[in-house]
Design a protein that fits this description.
This protein has a four-stranded antiparallel β-sheet with strand order 2-3-4-5. Strands 1-6 form a two-stranded antiparallel ribbon. With 407 residues, the chain is an alpha+beta fold. A hairpin with an 8-residue loop joins strand 2 and strand 3. It has two domains: 255 residues, no CATH class; 146 residues, Alpha-Beta Complex (endopeptidase fold (from Nostoc punctiforme)).
């Protein structure tokens, strides 16, 4: 799939996600959900029914905010990953152009040298016959060159060595022209990819900025609602936040209550292996990731004070000397796949990498990666506006294969 086609597809997915955020909402964040004021909370505490209604209203408002934040976060992750992939393709195309231009210059130098040697032979052969043939004749049109060679081939005094030099000159000229044309086409392709990468970057930056701004905008309201719940239920704000986050996870899991199943037509399923105890390297990677809990999500971040999802997993394993394929969720998945280090999600163990794509596709762009730490938990840098956290595994969009960097 070309970069432009893949980016258009990702953008369509992102637009669909944004439209689905809330009724009447298209490309803008939903309005703040309605929730009670502190005066209304205090008044409701005196009446059991009113108190229950206030709790329900606040919990509904928190659920709406959580859903909106998660969806905006997914939009940002999808577009950010597509931007990263587009940039990688542009870098590869730029490298190809540079390589072709170098080879073309070298071929042109060789062709010029062959031309000079051939011109010396032609000059010697025709010096007494009416003027010197010029380089322009030899290196004009292909028809002119063929005519010259045909004429020289019929000359009895043209040695095999001379004929070979002339033929080499033609060959070198054609090779140089071919490489120059190839370099020109490659530069055109690079220009197209540059436009795609620029568009992808702009889309991603806008999505990341919107997600982060919306989370920050609603943080104070969320904290106020947690405090209100604590007051109504005679608990603590921290406890209510943890409880509400648990409810949000349950709502999400209800849509996908079981782990994904690998496709039946998978041509190359991973080999199943017994699960040995976690190695020292796995333990070290998990410890490294845990040390970053609470650090902010930063697109493109790989520490020391900000992380995106693949930057966190990359550096966690890099800290123990294990490469997982560079920075990028899709790059890491493809690297581990090519190394034969994917495992069925049913065989998950601590240290494995969990990948997410739209619908859990094994072939689509992987927009998120997290580190499984055991007991149904994972560490992730979730999305803009959030921080590195340890949470229960989400099955929605989970790819049915995990990566096992330590093999």
């Amino acid at each position: 799939m070309t970069a432009s086609r893949r980016f258009r597809g990702a953008a369509a997915v992102a637009v669909a996600l944004v439209v689905a955020l809330a009724p009447g909402v298209a490309a803008h964040a939903a309005p703040m959900p309605d929730y009670p004021s502190w005066d209304e909370v205090e008044a409701a505490k005196a009446d059991e029914a009113a108190s229950a209604a206030a709790v329900a209203q606040i919990e509904a408002a928190l659920a709406a905010l959580e859903t909106e934040a998660a969806e905006l976060g997914k939009v940002a992750l999808v577009l950010a990953e597509e931007s990263d992939l587009a940039q990688q393709e542009l870098e590869a195309a730029t490298e190809r152009v540079e390589n072709l231009e170098t080879r073309s210059a070298e071929a042109r130098d060789q062709a010029d040298g062959s031309a000079r040697r051939a011109a010396q032979i032609l000059t010697q052969l025709t010096r007494t016959g009416g003027g010197d043939p010029t380089l322009a004749l030899l290196f004009g049109s292909a028809e002119d060159t063929d005519e010259v060679l045909s004429m020289l081939a019929s000359m009895s005094r043209l040695s095999e060595t001379s004929r070979a030099l002339l033929e080499q000159a033609v060959f070198d000229r054609n090779s140089a022209d071919s490489l120059a044309a190839e370099a020109e086409l490659a530069e055109e392709k690079r220009g197209e990819l540059a436009e795609v990468a620029a568009e992808a970057l702009a889309e991603a930056e806008a999505a990341v900025e919107e997600a982060q701004a919306r989370v920050e905008e609603t943080r104070a309201d969320s904290e106020r609602m947690y405090a209100q719940l604590a007051s109504l239920k005679n608990t603590s704000a921290d406890l209510e936040q943890a409880y509400q986050e648990g409810l949000a996870w349950e709502r999400e899991q209800a849509a996908d209550p079981t782990p994904p199943v690998p496709p039946a037509d998978d041509p190359d399923p991973p080999a199943e292996e017994p699960a040995p105890p976690a190695s020292d390297k796995v333990s070290g990677a998990i410890s490294y990731a845990r040390a970053q809990l609470g650090e902010p999500y930063v697109w493109g971040g790989a520490g020391p004070s900000g992380w995106d999802c693949s930057g966190l997993t990359m550096m966690a394993y890099s800290s123990v000397g294990v490469s997982i394929g560079g920075h990028g969720s899709t790059s890491q998945y493809n690297y581990l796949k090519s190394a034969g280090k994917l495992v069925n999600i049913a065989d998950l163990r601590a240290g494995d990498l969990l990948f997410y794509s739209d619908g859990g596709s094994t072939t689509g762009t992987k927009y998120h990666v997290a580190l499984y730490v055991g007991n149904g938990k994972m560490i992730e840098a979730p999305y803009p506006g959030q921080v590195v956290r340890e949470v229960s595994i989400r099955y929605g969009d989970l790819v049915p294969y995990a990566g096992r960097p330590t093999g």
